[in-house]
Amino acid sequence: MAERSDRSPAPWRRPFLRWLDAVETGWAVPLLLVCFVAIWTLYLVIAYAGGGLHPDTLEAWTLGRNFAWGYHKHPPLMGWVAAAWTSVFPPSDWSLQLMAMANAGLALFFVDLVSRQFVTGHKRILVLLLLMLTPAYQFHAQRFNANSVLLATWPLATWCFLRAFETRTVLWAVAAGCTTALAMVGKYYSIFLVTSFAFAALAHPARRAYFTSASPWISIVSGLAVLSPHIYWLATTGASTFTYAMTHANRDAVTSLADNVNFLLGLVAAMSVSAVLWVFIAGRRLRQFPADFAAMSPGLRLLFYIAIGTIVLPVLTSLAMGTDLPSLWALQGLFLFAVLVVCGARYPIERFYTVNLTLTTAGVALAAVLVAAPIHAVYRNTHGYEEGRNLYAQAANELTRQCRELTSAPLSAVSGDESLALAVAFYSPDHPYYAEAYAHQRTWGLSRKTTRQRGWAALCFRDQANCAADMDSISARTGPSVKREFTVQATLWGNPGVRRDVVVLMVPPMDGGTRPQSAADDFSASRRGAD
After folding, report:
1. For 441-498, how does the pLDDT look when each residue is reduced to its tens digit (9 = 90+)?
2. Of 345, 374, 384, 399, whose CA is between 20 and 30 Å from 448?
3. What is the strand order of the sheet 413-416 is part of?
């Protein structure tokens, strides 16, 4: 049937076939990616209408407000990306939702750069469609953070490494080193990608030609050069990012083993829908898999070793160090297996299947936008989120209003519950600086005199007992301050939703001055230096 359809397609299939004809002329893949970004951004806008941004996305935006070579919890790439984006687009929900999906679209574009090293035509589209049916490029991507920023950097670094290994030219060697360093300043988990590159190069039959060339050494030098500002930052600031990362270590062996089993099962589950659809596409031709694997091209064999390394190395490290290992940490590497499966198939795939998979992918996306997104929005309006994100804007605006009643000066700095304070920094018209010292998230301190002169505020939800208790403690030591409570309520398209009580502590400025640019830095310094 597939062959007959390709020879004599139904009229409704012909526009899709013309689109597939244009893969090699250059516009088919960009059109697919633009549609993908547009429809899933629309999904986020509807599903989270009145819901606020995820705290991870707010954290990325907050970090990006002050350029640095590193931040207390994370390497700096996610902050840099958010800062670059909001230098062009406004800081709003739809803007950062578009940023998240643009990052996913860019990731798929880099995956296509890898795919085109091995196949041409509509097989390149097949790789992208199978990945679009995993949760990595929509639901994982929408929480823009140190994990999701790797969606784009991993395939980019892989493409450059493949080219560097094959060509052994200076240009590609430098590109491989720089893009690998870029992945490292995204998240240190990328060390497993770097190590997988080394493992793949050593395991490949062409290893002698590669390692006796200048290519690997140029990559190492260029990568270290790009990383050197961050390495210097680590050396001069106490390497707090490593301290934060080590909070995931030192678990008992049984718990760590269970986490590793769940890690593998989670990755299998993430690829399950795509895997089932591939079985339907390949059909009886799956029996050719052993022969196809044996005849794998040198480039695909290198990619295979990289893929194995990105799974085996984290598992071995986790078992050795007793760390937890959520499967979402590895979702950015799923593209390796999609490329291997599709590009490693030596038999032709009829365009009949690509058209059908396109319709399936589009159908899932439309169902998500038209059905799932409104249901999600309505449910969350009445049931809320644990972190209270559908109350962020209301809490920020009310705190700003009450601070304006207390003093004419803009709100300078905000602290308290981390997620809620990040939200006030973003949603308040004053855009106060988030003044929590990241290295001491749950340690309240007493601000210095200069900070008290500028004024600041802190807030928690009433049902956050520990945060409220800390606020009581600091209010007794902070000097003149005002403590109040108010209630905020979510709304969706005019319909009232969940309600929560908010406790705020406001310290008015002592000199009545306006906010200086250094207010956040001074506050953070005072928090770190408090007794």
Report:
1. 444 343 455 455 677 888 999 888 888 777 777 766 666 788 899 999 999 999 999 9
2. 399
3. 433-434, 413-416, 456-461, 495-507, 482-492
Task: Classify 127 as helix, strand or coil.
Answer: helix
CA distance 498 to 501: 11
347: closest CA among 167, 126, 131? 126
**CA dihedral in degrees (15, 18, 23, 25; nearest 10)?**
-130
The answer to whether the CB of 507 falls within 8 A of the CB of 457 is yes
The residue assigned the tokens 């972190």 is 387
As a residue count, the chain comes to: 531
Are the CB atoms for 83 and 64 separated by under 8 Å?
yes
Identify the three-state secondary structure at position 483: strand
Which of these, 524, 466, 455, 386, lies nearest to 63 by C-alpha position? 524
Helix axes of 392-406 and 418-427: crossing angle, nearest 10 degrees? 70
Residue 281 has, within 13 A of its CA and on its CB side, a CA count of 27
Strand partners, 507: 456
The two structure tokens encoding residue 174: 């430098």
Specify the amino acid at residue 417: D
Residue 337, amino acid: F
Burial of 522 (0-12, 13-18, 19+ CB in 10 A): buried
- Residue 392 burial (10 A CB sphere; 0-12, 13-18, 19+): buried
DSSP 119-171: --THHHHHHHHHHHTSGGGTTTTTS-STTTTHHHHHHHHHHHHHHHHHH--HH
Other Cβ atoms within 10 Å of 295 Cβ, number: 11
Contacts of 483 by beta carbon, 8 Å cutoff, 6+ apart:
471, 475, 503, 504, 505, 506
Report the 10 Å Cβ neighbour count for 245. 17
